[in-house]
Design brief:
Distance between the termini: 26 Å
CATH topology of the largest domain: Pseudouridine synthase
CATH class of the largest domain: Alpha Beta
Number of domains: 4
Number of helices: 12
Number of strands: 18
Radius of gyration: 23 Å
Structural class: alpha+beta
Largest sheet: 10 strands, mixed
């Protein structure tokens, strides 16, 4: 981890602070998510159960909550939960957000009995047991992935170019920022800085090359004319939130009040994304200067549990430095780095790294204490993570692309980490969007 890192090939990744690869080999390119079944995600519960078709029984005591498996195909999680809550007239809780363009299985809790399975468009729910408490965010060990990479040239996937994926940088992945419109962090930045007009214009009227031509044209016309009436009449109904903000502006709301017409969870998503961008920048900076297994007084290190999740943060001092260095080098512990927020507190080598980033961004920790009436505290996140049970199956013919090859890769990640951060090391796409990220 102390070698100079390899720069990314992707402009999109650079714009999200993901500046380096942990591997040096040539990428195999290819495409993921050609169909939803190519990207399978199975949650692993705190008890160690893999959530999939075979999970029929799981009890957390006799209580008011039903534990159930949610299987979804090509569906966003949050709108799916809203639909279930209306259908069941009950609160539905989950442990982690899963990919949209995928087939995913996860444990949910429902605040009432579920007597019959639910089966509807690309969605299944079945009860597996009861619980004394609801499923809480972060209440999982990790996720197991089975991913097919297609459209490969066979000569590019000889085993000697498959990189050594022993460890990976703890980046927030591409989905956090948007692939088609990689600007959620930009909207969040303007919100944090109180630049609400800029936030609205970025959200509504900044066109991105990856968007469908029609949407690109609508945004470009709005950017050049700021004709809100034309934008509202031409904006398709599925751009629900854009239409809400335009309606608010047309009714006389200022830029701040128009943004407040958005659900608070969406406002949180924008600011969380900006915090993630700042973390990625800090991680890249520390990586380039020191490496990600470098530990110094003032740092925070965490012992890893049996699932390779951080379990016990410890502040590094001169007296415990050598011991904690050995733990980090032997993969028994990992460096934690701050995700900036209102409670940001840094010292040692991180002080200079974070100070320079915040100064360049023209913000301070106080900037996060009141963003449109909401406070955004920071957390600690591992600088690296370790995939387990990694298996790359033998190449076979890609039935969807005659003359091309496909491979399937299986692996398990600790909670909170992105499969695409592993896949980018394997594929090294210059254009993550066209590669299916």
């Amino acid at each position: 981890m102390t070698m100079p890192p390899t720069p990314t090939l992707s402009q999109l990744e650079r714009s999200c602070g993901m500046l380096f690869y942990s591997t040096t080999g040539k990428g195999i390119n290819g495409k993921i998510r050609v169909k939803p079944e190519d990207f399978l995600v199975e949650e692993i519960t705190p008890e160690g159960y893999v959530v999939n078709e075979s999970l029929k029984t799981l009890s957390r005591g006799s209580g008011p909550y039903t534990l159930a498996v949610l299987k979804k195909r090509s569906r966003d999680l949050l709108p799916t939960l809203s639909l279930l809550q209306k259908l069941l007239k009950a609160k539905v809780s989950f442990a982690g957000i899963k990919d949209r363009r995928a087939v995913t299985y996860q444990l949910i809790s429902i605040s009432r009995p579920l007597t019959e399975p639910i089966r509807m468009n690309n969605l299944e729910v079945w009860a597996v047991g009861t619980s004394k408490w609801e499923v809480r965010p972060g209440e999982l060990k990790g996720n197991r992935f089975t991913i097919t990479i297609r459209s490969l040239d066979r000569e590019d996937i000889s085993t000697d170019v498959l990189p050594d994926l022993n460890w990976l940088p703890g980046y927030f992945g591409h989905q956090r920022f948007g692939i088609t419109r990689p600007n959620t962090h930009k909207v969040g930045k303007y919100m944090v800085k109180g630049e609400f007009e800029e936030a609205v214009r970025e959200f509504l009227a900044e066109p991105y090359e990856g968007e469908p031509n029609r949407i690109f044209s609508i945004r470009l016309h709005l950017k050049t004319t700021w004709d809100l009436n034309v934008a509202l009449s031409s904006m398709p109904s599925f751009l629900l939130y854009e239409r809400e903000v335009i309606r608010a502006l047309l009714s006389g709301a200022d830029y701040l009040r128009s943004l407040k017409s958005l659900p608070s969870r969406l406002i949180r998503l924008f600011v969380d994304s900006y915090q993630s961008y700042l973390f990625n920048l800090a991680l890249s900076e520390r990586w380039s200067k020191y490496g990600l297994n470098y530990v110094a007084p003032g740092d925070i290190v965490s012992i890893l549990d049996s699932s390779l999740n951080p379990s016990r943060p410890i502040k590094v001092t001169h007296s415990n430095l050598e011991k904690l260095k050995k733990f980090v080098d032997s993969k028994k512990a990992v460096l934690l780095m701050p995700v900036p927020g209102s409670n940001l507190s840094v010292e040692g080598v991180n002080y200079q790294i974070y100070s320079e980033i915040l100064e360049k961004e023209k913000i301070s920790p106080r900037s996060f204490s009141n963003v449109m009436g909401l406070e955004f505290r920071g957390t600690m996140r591992p600088a690296v993570f370790y995939p387990t049970d990694l298996e790359i199956l033998n190449p076979s013919e890609d039935e969807l692309n005659p003359g091309k090859t496909k491979i399937t890769i299986k692996f398990t990640l600790p909670r909170g980490f992105y499969a695409t951060v592993l896949l980018r090391e394997l594929m090294k796409p210059e254009d993550p969007k066209s590669a299916g990220f």
